[in-house]
# Entry
Amino acid sequence: PVSPNEYFPVGSGVDTEKIRLKYSKFPEEVKVNREILKKIDSLLLDGLEEKAYPGARVMIARNGVVFYNKSIGYHTDKKDNPVNDFAIYDLASLTKVLSTTATIMRLYEQDKILLDDKISEYIPGLDTTDKKDINFRDILTHQSGLISWIPFYAETITDDSIFNAVYSSVQDDLFNIKVAENMYMHRSYLDTIYHRIFDSRIINRKRYLYSDVGFYILKDIIENITDTCFNDYVYNNFYNSLGANSLRYNPLNYFEKDIIVPTEIDKIFRKQLLHGYVHDYAAAMFGGIAGHAGLFGNANDVLKLMQMFLNNGEYGEERYFSEETVRLFTDYYDRSFSRRSLGFDKPEPNNNGNGIGGNYASKLSYGHLGFTGTMVWTDPEYDFVYVFLSNRVYPSANNRKLNSMRIRGNILDVIYEAIDEY
# Structure
């Protein structure tokens, strides 16, 4: 350090407060062991060599500092488009926390809903069904008794006549719900979908059963309360001000195709490579905008939103939620019942290492998995956020090597080890 002149003596400067993510090449800055982190490189390479995915993105931040930022592989097995920092992935069920749960938290804080409110109070016609007593807590903790999912698509592809009555290759006033490229669903079929939801079975009421169906319903409730398209609501209330502009439904409306990572070659329903269109069948039939799936985004923007949760609801000098709300939604709902919180997944309470949190997660931690090969995890006790994005469903969702090799969980274990061993 030197004093260049009398106006700028040694030590001159302005102290600023860190309000957004910082990016560093030095894990030691946040007390993380560099040598231990090399295990993550090996795990990612193993997954690539074993064809668990064509490519992947991993970002990890501690104390608000991104200390690990890795792109590996390609968009597909053709190896003509390398994964980079801007790659946009289908986030699958991360939608549940990054979109739907965040919005429910906002409406809860605004006193527009109560968690014990029955959802039948918000959906006309539901009060005459066996779902009339289900409340918001039931859905967010997956104890509503609603079945896991409904294959709406199945009865539309039984023969060509039914298929042609439901879908068209040309968009018009009747066939106006875009399901995939050159594939539009008849708008009246939405009524059939909602009848199927209303008529669906209730099983194991007040028992844990992971269900997309409740999140189908939450999206409609949100739109009814806010009188706003769900896509616009989450972007205008969260993503835009966070600077997380890649978080979008139907990304082809906003981004060039070559930065969007393809998912499955769908041979059953849409008969095409899904590139920029949501992988989930039900979300596709909702026009790509749903409460359980449909959100796309890059790793950096996912990290910003999770960092906001880790900051107890604040990011970039803007407060999105109170600390009390964040604690309420991220704490265990009932440890004797399941490991779930209100919307988020959590480690097994008995620390048996079998849950999403791996072997070392604290009781304060929370996150979620996505079917396409994605994961987010936040641990307030260790002050870090971990984001894993991949398209393990390319070319086929039958590829389960990401799970069998336990790549996402093993990386999480390494993070804890690297912090402990610093």
Observations:
- The mean pLDDT is 96.
- The two ends are 29 Å apart (CA to CA).
